[in-house]
Amino acid sequence: MNININKCDNKYIVAVDGRLDTNTAPELEAALNDIIAEDILLACEAMEYVSSAGLRVILALHKRLAAQGRCLTLRGIRPEVRSVLDMTGFSRILCFE
């Protein structure tokens, strides 16, 4: 998995390329810890797969940002990832662009 982080206006754009799974979720979590004070747009156009470990990172980030009055938005969700978000109920609590 590759992670690319850019700041644009008052938010960070975090592009995730590859699989977000048990092996790569800690890498994303560590990268996001440094930018938790801003809104985050998670660009998922190149995210091929998300496991329960990846969902845990996304949910924890969503909760931490919401507690600070910040927002996590997901963009460019592939159908195979969207089906996982729908099945787990994440689609009802997350914001999408």
Task: Note the main attributes of this structure.
alpha/beta, Transcription Regulator spoIIAA, 36% strand
Write the layout of secondary structure elements.
Blueprint: E1 2-8, E2 11-20, H1 25-33, E3 39-50, H2 52-67, E4 72-75, H3 79-88, E5 95-96
Parallel strand pairs: 2-3, 3-4, 4-5
Antiparallel strand pairs: 1-2
Helix pairs in contact: 1-2
Written overview of the protein:
- With 97 residues, this protein is α/β, with parallel strands linked by helices.
- The protein has a single domain (2-96), classed as STAS domain (Transcription Regulator spoIIAA), CATH 3.30.750.24.
- Helices cover 36% and strands 36% of the residues.
- The protein has 3 helices and 5 strands, in the order ββαβαβαβ.
- The protein has helices spanning 25-33, 52-67, 79-88, and strands at 2-8, 11-20, 39-50, 72-75, 95-96.
- The chain has a 5-stranded mixed beta sheet.
- The protein starts with a strand and ends with a strand.
- The relative contact order is 0.18.
- The model has no long low-confidence stretch (mean pLDDT 94).
